[in-house]
Specification:
This protein is an all-alpha fold. It has two domains: 2-271, no CATH class; 286-318. The chain contains ten helices and two strands; from the N terminus they run E-E-H-H-H-H-H-H-H-H-H-H. It has helices at 19-27, 31-65, 72-96, 104-112, 116-150, 153-156, 163-180, 200-248, 262-271, 288-318; strands at residues 2-5, 8-11. A two-stranded antiparallel sheet has the order 1-2. The longest helix has 49 residues, at 200-248. The chain crosses the membrane at residues 294-314. Keywords: Membrane, Transmembrane, Transmembrane helix.
């Protein structure tokens, strides 16, 4: 990782820290704290967009499930999960501002000068741990919904592909971020390295630790960003085609398909649906009565076969 200070570019990847680099770092002691605060803020913003995304998803699924009678267990589970995601969404809004808010720039500037150890790291760790707990439930809920929807022909069309697998990847990224934000650094007090001026190994060890954390947070943030761009586009299409043309029988404007706003389209679509009938495929279409009927027929056939075998055996023994 390369750091830029004015027209100078420095790297701490080498095994030795040149004196001029050492002095340059000491003359800009907030450099590492600024970089950590910056990537931490960006990471939370990218995670926040993911939370909005899954808030849309759970809103759509729980609303559709309310239209399916006699499956209250799945419906209630989806509703509880939706509420947890929306509560998490609200917490992130309070910390970072509403999505597309004009105040986001002010939030960003206020983060740059925060103490990394006393404020940024602790706030991020709390946010990540809260998100981990919620996404563990999201994974369970999506797994349940996918199994349920996959059983019926018409419900299969309502599934959003690959969401479950991506939720699992997000949870894995949250695990890694939790580890990164748990590491204590000297980012707030880089001038401490002056006391190790004659020991390059200790100085480099401390600075490289900061660099690894910065790169690690940046990497997971990139995963959130790519995930959002991919699935946000999928949900735009889902809103326009399935909720708009298929249910509402009209074209939905692009602005209405945007994140968060598409929830309103979902509620409008729900008003046009009284209930969703269940159409099972051939592999799952046997009712309890049909199973009993075929079991009885099978038993009769087996009884007849056994009777024939016994009759022939007796006939042979008699002869």
């Amino acid at each position: 990782m390369t750091y830029t200070i004015g027209d100078r570019r420095i790297s701490i990847e080498a095994d030795h820290l040149p004196p001029e680099t050492f002095e340059l770092i000491l003359s800009h002691p907030t450099l590492f704290k600024y970089c950590l605060n910056n990537v931490s803020y960006t990471c939370l913003i990218d995670l926040k967009k993911i939370i909005h995304l899954y808030g849309d998803v759970l809103t759509i699924y729980s609303t559709l499930l309310c239209k399916i009678p006699k499956y209250d267990d799945v419906t209630n589970f989806a509703s509880r999960t939706q509420m947890r995601v929306l509560q998490l969404e609200n917490s992130f809004n309070n910390l970072l501002g509403d999505y597309n808010s004009n105040n986001n720039l002010n939030f960003k500037e206020s983060w740059d000068d925060k103490s990394y150890e006393k404020e940024t790291r602790r706030a991020c760790l709390l946010c990540i741990q809260s998100a981990k707990e919620v996404f563990a439930q999201v994974i369970s809920c999506l797994n349940c919904i996918e199994v349920f929807f996959s059983t019926f022909d018409n419900l299969k069309k309502l599934l959003i592909p690959y969401l479950l697998g991506q939720a699992e990847e997000i949870h894995a990224s949250l695990d890694k971020l939790s580890d990164w934000f748990s590491v204590v650094t000297i980012a707030d007090d880089v001038v401490k390295i002056r006391s190790y001026k004659n020991d390059d190994s200790i100085i480099l060890q401390q600075l490289k630790k900061i660099e690894r954390i910065t790169s690690g947070i940046e990497r997971e943030s990139g995963i959130f960003n790519v995930t959002f761009k991919t699935f946000d586009q999928s949900l735009k299409s889902y809103t326009a085609i399935l909720l708009g043309r298929a249910i509402l029988k009209r074209d939905i404007g692009e602005e209405q398909c945007q994140i968060i706003r598409r929830r309103e389209v979902c509620f409008q679509a729900a008003e046009h649906v009284v209930n969703i009938p269940l159409h099972q495929d051939q592999l799952h279409s046997f009712s309890g009565t049909q199973i009993a009927k075929y079991a009885m027929i099978g038993s009769v056939v087996v009884f007849l076969l056994v009777s024939i075998v016994v009759y022939r055996l007796l006939k042979v023994l008699v002869w």
